[in-house]
Amino acid sequence: MQTPLLKPAITAADRVLLEIQRAIVEGDITAGSKISEPELAKRFDLSRAPLREALARLERCHLIERIPNAGARVVKLSTQGLLSLYQLRETLEGLACRLAAEHMADSEISELRALLDQHLSTQRVREGESYYQEAGDLDFHYRVILGSKNEYLINILCDELYHLVRMYRVQLGMNGPRVSRAFDEHKAILNAIANRDGELADLLMRRHIAASRRNIEKQLEQTGT
Amino acid sequence: MQTPLLKPAITAADRVLLEIQRAIVEGDITAGSKISEPELAKRFDLSRAPLREALARLERCHLIERIPNAGARVVKLSTQGLLSLYQLRETLEGLACRLAAEHMADSEISELRALLDQHLSTQRVREGESYYQEAGDLDFHYRVILGSKNEYLINILCDELYHLVRMYRVQLGMNGPRVSRAFDEHKAILNAIANRDGELADLLMRRHIAASRRNIEKQLEQTGT
DNA sequence: TTTAGTCTTATTGTCGACAATATTGGCCTT
DNA sequence: AAGGCCAATATTGTCGACAATAAGACTAAA
């Protein structure tokens, strides 16, 4: 059974939302640039009404910033923003792990274990191809978050912060060599969840994200400044 | 200096948002009821365009739930929802306290202390009047959250979860006798922040919110079931 | 030359109407 | 009589145009 949680973009506003989201995350629309409603409407060939709906949701996930009567700008990436974002992720995904250890069904856990093994093998085949690793990493986190069974937590992490995290990763070029270590950490987290040890799962996830943050920061000070 | 962080509702969509928010929180629009766009548009005497903008933001703060092409319903209160919400608040406001202990300026701390003393005195005068206590309580939490200086955290707690918390409190009739104890707990939290003891502040805030949650649960099982 | 003010221009916010989709009621079939 | 199918209705999604506001250019005065 495929997870039916991602609605397949029924309305036009949904479709254009996905397109713009991708464009912003991948830097196709430059960070910090001003957004022109008429221009985007023409570019995606629809009216301003659904476009504005999409912009409202983009603001919700912190990809753009709007000022009333003034317009919208694509968010600018900053060290401060990255720090704030990962601070929050540490706490929230830690909580997600603790709750997942309580609420995940045994079947979900074994599915997740299968997924990890699968990722490991495909990763061995495609060494260096960071895209798959990235997708796999996000998938793991995604499932744990869903396993928390807390609707608000799921909404915040999967709908609101998810794309911004991806934006930082993509635009800072995170193809780092942290791949194999991340796998081990995922495995350890999963074991804690399987043992219903929420406290340990929480701790391990916080460490895992902190390590990821330090990794990005290192990348940042090499590239930038 | 008054905090200029709440924009004074420039646009029509902003105004109607505030009105509908209040109406939902205070039960003027029944929980679980269906929302009719034409009806609300007529009721507030504006077009559907700004109304839909308002509805989008209401969905963002979990006061309504929308289904594409089907419509929107006011959220229903449930024990499960309350639990999820307070679970999240415990963690998030705990984090806010820890960060506030790091980032709040001394001036902000003394202002907050003054505010607490003021609340205490006015509360002694107006014993039983729960409204002021409620406002004061929210104000304290609000300031601590702002003190965290984490934009994402602030956004989540103040913009997205705040009104839902109020909705639970109002509609479950929270005028409880937890008043004086809450004051003491606030004081203790503030002291920890002033001592720059983030860990303690975190712990105390989590306990504070857990106590508040148990209080509401007790209220709930008296009223409901 | 700088600065203040005004006017032009462009963008956002709002409106009413149309198109597409879901819901409701009635009708027919079994 | 019950259940399913279809039409009628109502509601949502989308469109193009207008109004209100902000940004930018140009002029004029210090």
Give the SSE layout:
Two copies of one chain form a homodimer.
Chain A: H1 12-25, E1 34-35, H2 37-44, H3 48-60, E2 64-67, E3 71-74, H4 79-103, H5 106-125, H6 130-147, H7 151-171, H8 179-194, H9 198-223
Antiparallel strand pairs in A: 1-3, 2-3
Helix pairs in contact in A: 1-3, 4-6, 4-7, 4-8, 4-9, 5-6, 5-8, 6-8, 8-9
Chain A binds a DNA duplex (30 and 30 nucleotides) through residues 11-13, 36-38, 46-50, 52-53, 68-71.
Overview of the structural elements:
- The structure is a homodimer of 225-residue chains.
- Chain A is mainly α and 225 residues long.
- Chain A is built from nine helices and three strands, in the order αβααββαααααα.
- In chain A, helix 4 (79-103) packs antiparallel against helix 9.
- The first copy, chain A, binds a DNA duplex (30 and 30 nucleotides) through residues 11-13, 36-38, 46-50, 52-53, 68-71.
